[in-house]
Specification:
The structure holds two protein chains of two kinds. By secondary structure, chain A is mostly beta strands. Chain A is about 0% helix and about 50% strand. The model of chain A has no long low-confidence stretch (mean pLDDT about 90). In chain B, about 0% of the residues lie in helices and about 55% in strands. Classes of the chains: A mainly beta, B mainly beta. The interface between A and B is medium-sized, with 27 and 23 residues.
Chain lengths: ~110, ~110
């Protein structure tokens, strides 16, 4: 079946602009995660959605970052007033509860 | 807090050599899951294996094998008869309980030379 998909695959923006990154999880997966991979920073957890529960936002680096998940499926990660340090690959992942986690191809964000 | 350590930053081998990637983890929880992911140059994280803390049986899948030892908090990954296509960054990760966030190690860059 289809895996986790993300769009766009690449995004170049200017400092100060807002961006939206989209994730389509594997159908039926109740858990959805956003991670960020920066050069030299490894893989960093951002936010986690599980079913109808309140999301775990503890990894969001600042209040410029937010995410929502509509209808328990598609998720959008929004970064407001982007800064150069936001440049990274943003990875989305999904899983069934207590099962293996599968990642999408990522969105490479470059903030000029 | 959880921590995963992959002490080997880079490993370089010649094709057909066996190679072991080390992973040491820290957690106070008794229920946890351990993972290995492969990240080839294309960038996508590819799931390789998931083990739970109650199952210490070693696992073999083709040329891949995993050695889970709770006594040393290690979950090492061995590639037998390595191939050039095995060249990638390999990440070890840990999660607690049911589908919680993954805590990743820093990754090991494996280069297999022909």
């Amino acid at each position: 079946g289809a895996g986790v998909s993300q769009s766009p695959s690449n995004k170049v923006t200017e400092k100060g602009k807002d961006v939206e990154l989209r994730c389509d999880p594997i159908s039926g997966h109740t858990a959805l995660y956003w991670y960020r991979q920066s050069l030299g920073q490894g893989l960093e957890f951002l936010i986690y959605f599980q079913g109808n529960s309140a999301p775990d936002k503890s990894g969001l680096p600042s209040d410029r970052f937010s995410a929502e998940r509509t209808g328990g499926s598609v998720s959008t990660l929004t970064i407001q007033r982007t800064q150069q340090e936001d440049s990274a690959v943003y990875l989305c992942a999904s899983s069934l509860k207590a099962a293996s986690t599968y990642f999408g191809p990522g969105t490479r964000l470059t903030v000029l | 807090a959880q921590k995963v350590t992959q002490a080997q930053t880079e490993i370089s081998v010649v094709e057909k050599e066996d190679v072991t990637l080390d992973c040491v983890y820290e957690t106070r929880d008794t229920t946890y899951y351990l993972f290995w992911y492969k990240q080839p140059p294309s960038g996508e994280l590819v799931f390789l294996i998931r083990r739970n803390s109650f199952d210490e049986q070693n696992e073999i899948s083709g040329r891949y094998s995993w050695n889970f030892q709770k006594s040393t908090s290690s979950f090492n990954f061995t590639i037998t008869a390595s191939q050039v296509v095995d060249s990638a960054v390999y990440f070890c990760a840990l999660s607690l309980g049911s589908g919680s966030r993954l805590t990743f190690g820093e990754g090991t860059q494996l280069t297999v030379n022909p």
